[in-house]
């Protein structure tokens, strides 16, 4: 564990942003990475990798390469009965981890009865944002065979609908947040305007009279004093 004074440890830490008393928390939207691309069919038909893998070509079982052939054959058969196996396209070197449904009552994933000495496998998965289906066979003795990728249109339609629903829910959350933010700003502006008017009124009420104006509310009337009349001097 790195010490807190270690610069390397501090460099890997994320900054911590504290939230003030009157500060609104920042929105946290968790948008899951889409499982598929918007146009799966176009990518499947135009991507170079899908073009190569969509042509039927040689494949090999790649599990337990360091074990004897007899044990590898047993491991392959056992894995198929459990619903999984590992293969690779010989021409391109592309490795695939195949998972499928296999049970005594369901041979849609792996069928040992279709052809003697071979395991016919169908595995559905998403590769590079495209719903695909690997279809092929493996020889139970040589542990090689042939297969190719196909566009799984049924699964693609389901994933497309889920993607549109996910995007719509995310956009709705954004709209709801923007509406709340707008209402919060309008309410804040009303409170600030009310506070300014109240502050102005309080300031005017506390303001003292101007020095040039008389303190008495009524105007002062001038007082006229008549001079005393001087009497005649008697000699």
Automatic annotation (TrEMBL):
Coiled-coil region(s) at which residues?
160-187
Q: What is its main location?
A: nucleus
Q: A biological process (GO) annotation for this entry?
A: regulation of hemocyte proliferation
According to the lineage, what is the superkingdom? Eukaryota
- Keyword annotations for this protein? Coiled coil, Nucleus
Identify one Gene Ontology CC term for this UniProt entry: core-binding factor complex
Region described as Disordered = 188-235
Q: Could you confirm whether the keyword Hydrolase appears in this record?
A: no
The listed locations are: Nucleus
One of the record's GO molecular function terms: transcription coactivator activity
InterPro entries the record matches: CBF_beta, CBF_bsu_sf
Q: Which Pfam families match?
A: CBF_beta
- The transmembrane residues are none
Compositional bias of kind Basic residues:
213-227
Q: Which family does it belong to?
A: Belongs to the CBF-beta family.
What does the UniProt function comment say about this protein? Regulates the DNA-binding properties of Runt.
**What is the official name of this protein in its record?**
Protein big brother
Q: Which organism is it from?
A: Euphydryas editha (Edith's checkerspot)
């Amino acid at each position: 564990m790195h010490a807190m004074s270690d610069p390397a440890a501090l460099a890997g830490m994320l900054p911590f942003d504290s939230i003030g008393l009157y500060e609104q928390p920042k929105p946290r939207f968790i948008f899951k990475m889409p499982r598929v691309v918007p146009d799966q069919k176009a990518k499947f038909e135009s991507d170079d990798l899908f073009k190569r893998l969509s042509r039927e070509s040689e494949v090999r079982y790649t599990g337990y390469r360091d074990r004897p052939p007899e044990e590898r054959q047993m491991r392959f058969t056992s894995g198929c009965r459990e619903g999984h196996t590992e293969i690779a396209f010989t021409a391109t070197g592309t490795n695939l981890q195949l998972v499928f449904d296999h049970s005594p009552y369901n041979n849609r994933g792996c069928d040992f009865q279709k052809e003697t000495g071979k395991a016919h496998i169908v595995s559905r998965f998403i590769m590079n944002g495209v719903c695909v289906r690997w279809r092929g066979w493996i020889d139970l003795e040589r542990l090689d065979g042939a297969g190719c990728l196909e566009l799984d249109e049924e699964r693609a339609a389901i994933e497309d609908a889920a993607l549109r629903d996910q995007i719509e829910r995310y956009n709705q959350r954004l709209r709801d947040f923007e509406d709340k933010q707008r209402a919060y700003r309008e309410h804040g502006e009303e409170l600030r305007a009310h506070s300014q008017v109240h502050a102005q009124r309080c300031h005017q009420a506390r303001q003292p009279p101007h020095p040039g104006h008389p303190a008495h509310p009524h105007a002062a009337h001038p007082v006229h004093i008549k001079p005393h009349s001087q009497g005649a001097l008697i000699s």
